[in-house]
């Protein structure tokens, strides 16, 4: 039997020109199809455009498995150019271990920070590589490396990569123009570190087959080969696979892993799949899967967490670039939280409960957000109470095809790429997709997100002990009928019920079942006496008279909640 190969995907991320490609080249022994800036447009620009792949094989360390075997590191060279962050996010979902490459003469740069953010979302382990140490003068080299190492340790302190290995190398001493005979410095030490960081990634062959294709080309007399990494499930010779973007299904004719024919491949493997009668131009990159296992959705509910480095609030109704699965589209967001009573309740992961009520939020609640009125009510000592979990409704400008429960990242990619800010705003998990184009009518009414409404008016005058006339609660044109029967409270403490309109100008009658208190009656009679003086002999003074009202008018407050997606706009009082 062939020796077993354990494949670990290592993402090589970093700022542009930190030397990622040179490092991948120095590390690798077997080049894969997409490796090393092969694309003509990439060579012309001198930067890595697509996810390049190459691999390095070494003996399997005993702790990772008995018997002979090889440990294969597939190096996923992620582009570092700011406008290509979409590609990185695409690659991050298949990465087991991250290598963050830093130019030792420059330290952390904007994109290194963004890579760090993506790493924290998508990956468990990291190695930091300080590259280009050949540029440091020999006498000061050691102290400069130590200084930068300390600086990096400080940067990583508050991330999940705190304490990760930091290795100094020169992938290509003398730079790109130097002769090939120059040997890289520190690369064999780096390989040892990578081996020490390798782990058995949890791979699961069950579930639907899903593969991220990054290259597609034809081979004369064979057919079309799609190469990529299997994100979930497994695939065998003769299986049918669907290309959902094109709604086409094809049969797997042959498969290869690093130039070796195979009959089976599973999650985490990098594989080339050959099909017939398919034009490679139709699919440069994208997803292929078990037929009908992906959803094409117009909107989604996601769990959401803000990215700490993003400056500014995350506002409802704002537009973001949303990366879902392997697509990036524009989308609009609406944030919502648990009802205030449930803020501290533990929320089950990766499920969304449609039975519960949720509170609409104008923005994602974070330590620095302006706490809204409703949340102030549960405030103690001015501390903003933050819920354990928050969600967002995403509405896409065009439909996206993705697996259920996939990673979602929201970014502001239109921010100036030279501005020194993190453009990744939030991340989450897709909990529920909406496949129906008319989801506004068919689906959203099931989502019980409410707003609390608070209206205030004033008592105009007393009719008798059990009823008063109110004003300024409604506009003239409001149909008061829909408010009949709702409960109100007077500032003097009485409870009342709206009984109906009174006249044409938006006034209304309130019934006070327990009767007015004597004090209230006094207050109101004094007020209306003043009014009748002012109003004598001039019918139009009504509006002015309210100004010289008693110092303390009696106010009426009406509180109710209304569900945002309720087509009937019903008002509900608890």
From TrEMBL:
Keyword flag Nucleotide-binding: yes
Q: Which residues form the Tr-type G domain?
A: 5-202
Residue ranges, compositional bias (Basic and acidic residues): 535-547
Chain residue ranges for the region called Disordered: 529-550
Localization of this protein: Cytoplasm; Nucleus
Please cite one Gene Ontology biological process associated with this protein. selenocysteine incorporation
GO CC terms in record: cytoplasm; nucleus
Does the record bear Kinase in its keywords? no
So which cofactors does this thing need?
Mn(2+); Mg(2+)
Record-linked InterPro entries? eEFSec_C, eEFSec_III, EF-Tu_GTPase, EFTu-like_2, P-loop_NTPase, T_Tr_GTP-bd_dom, Transl_B-barrel_sf
**MF (Gene Ontology):** GTP binding; GTPase activity; translation elongation factor activity
Q: Could you tell me the keywords of this UniProt record? A: Cytoplasm, GTP-binding, Hydrolase, Methylation, Nucleotide-binding, Nucleus, Phosphoprotein, Protein biosynthesis
What catalytic activity does the UniProt entry give for this protein?
Answer: GTP + H2O = GDP + phosphate + H(+)
Q: Which PANTHER family match?
A: ELONGATION FACTOR TU-RELATED, SELENOCYSTEINE-SPECIFIC ELONGATION FACTOR
Job of this protein: Translation factor required for the incorporation of the rare amino acid selenocysteine encoded by UGA codons. Replaces the eRF1-eRF3-GTP ternary complex for the insertion of selenocysteine directed by the UGA codon. Insertion of selenocysteine at UGA codons is mediated by SECISBP2 and EEFSEC: SECISBP2 (1) specifically binds the SECIS sequence once the 80S ribosome encounters an in-frame UGA codon and (2) contacts the RPS27A/eS31 of the 40S ribosome before ribosome stalling.
Name of the protein this chain belongs to: Selenocysteine-specific elongation factor
Q: Which organism is it from?
A: Crotophaga sulcirostris (Groove-billed ani)
Whichever gene encodes this chain, its name is Eefsec
């Amino acid at each position: 039997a062939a020796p077993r190969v354990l494949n670990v995907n290592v993402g090589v991320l970093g700022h542009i020109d930190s030397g990622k490609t040179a490092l991948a080249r120095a590390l690798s022994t077997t080049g894969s199809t997409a490796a090393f800036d092969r694309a003509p447009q990439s060579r012309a620009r001198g930067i890595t455009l697509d996810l390049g792949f190459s691999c390095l094989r070494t003996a399997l360390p005993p702790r990772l498995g008995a018997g002979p075997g090889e440990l294969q590191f597939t190096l996923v060279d992620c582009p570092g150019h700011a406008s290509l962050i979409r590609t990185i996010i695409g690659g991050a979902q298949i990465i087991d271990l991250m290598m963050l490459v830093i130019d030792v003469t420059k330290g952390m740069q904007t994109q290194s920070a963004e890579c760090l953010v993506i790493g924290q979302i998508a990956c468990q382990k990291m190695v930091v590589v300080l590259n280009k140490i050949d540029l440091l003068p020999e006498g000061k080299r050691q102290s400069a490396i130590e200084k930068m190492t300390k600086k990096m340790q400080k940067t990583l302190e508050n991330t999940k990569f705190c304490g990760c290995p930091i290795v100094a190398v020169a992938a290509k001493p003398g730079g790109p123009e130097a002769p090939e005979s120059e040997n890289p410095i520190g690369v064999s030490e780096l390989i040892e570190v990578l081996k020490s960081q390798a782990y058995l990634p949890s791979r699961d062959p069950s579930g639907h087959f899903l593969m991220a294709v990054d290259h597609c080309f034809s081979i004369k007399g064979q057919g079309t080969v799609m190469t990529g990494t299997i994100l979930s499930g497994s695939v065998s010779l003769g299986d049918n696979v669907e290309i959902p973007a094109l709604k086409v299904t094809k049969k797997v004719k042959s498969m290869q892993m690093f130039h070796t024919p195979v009959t089976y491949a599973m999650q985490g493997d990098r594989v080339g799949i050959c099909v017939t009668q398919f034009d490679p131009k139709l699919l440069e990159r994208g997803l292929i899967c078990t037929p009908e296992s992906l959803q094409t959705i117009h909107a989604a509910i996601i769990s959401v967490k803000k990215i700490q480095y993003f400056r500014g609030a995350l506002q409802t109704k704002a537009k973001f670039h949303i990366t879902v699965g392997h697509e990036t589209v524009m989308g609009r967001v609406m944030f919502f939280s648990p009802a205030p009573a449930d803020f501290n309740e533990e929320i089950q992961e990766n499920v969304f409960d449609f039975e519960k009520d949720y509170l609409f939020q104008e923005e994602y609640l974070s330590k620095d957000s302006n706490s809204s009125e409703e949340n102030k009510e549960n405030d103690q000592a001015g501390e903003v109470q933050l819920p354990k979990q928050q969600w967002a409704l995403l509405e896409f400008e065009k439909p996206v095809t993705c697996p259920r429960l996939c990673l979602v990242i929201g970014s502001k990619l239109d921010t100036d790429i030279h501005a020194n800010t993190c453009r990744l705003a939030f991340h989450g998990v897709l909990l529920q997709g909406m496949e129906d184009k008319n989801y506004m009518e068919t689906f959203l009414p099931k989502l019980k997100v409410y707003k609390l409404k608070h209206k205030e008016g004033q008592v105009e005058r007393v009719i008798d002990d059990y009823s008063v006339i109110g004003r300024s609660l409604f506009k003239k044109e409001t149909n008061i009928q829909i408010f009949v029967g709702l409960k109100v409270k007077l500032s003097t403490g009485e409870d009342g019920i709206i009984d109906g309109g009174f006249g044409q100008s938006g006034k209304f009658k309130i019934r006070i079942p327990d009767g007015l208190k004597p004090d209230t009656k006094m207050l109101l009679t004094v007020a209306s006496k003043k009014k009748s003086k002012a109003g004598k002999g001039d019918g139009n003074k009504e509006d002015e008279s309210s100004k010289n009202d008693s110092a303390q008018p009696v106010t009426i407050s009406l509180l109710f909640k209304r569900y945002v997606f309720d087509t009937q706009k019903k008002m509900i009082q608890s």
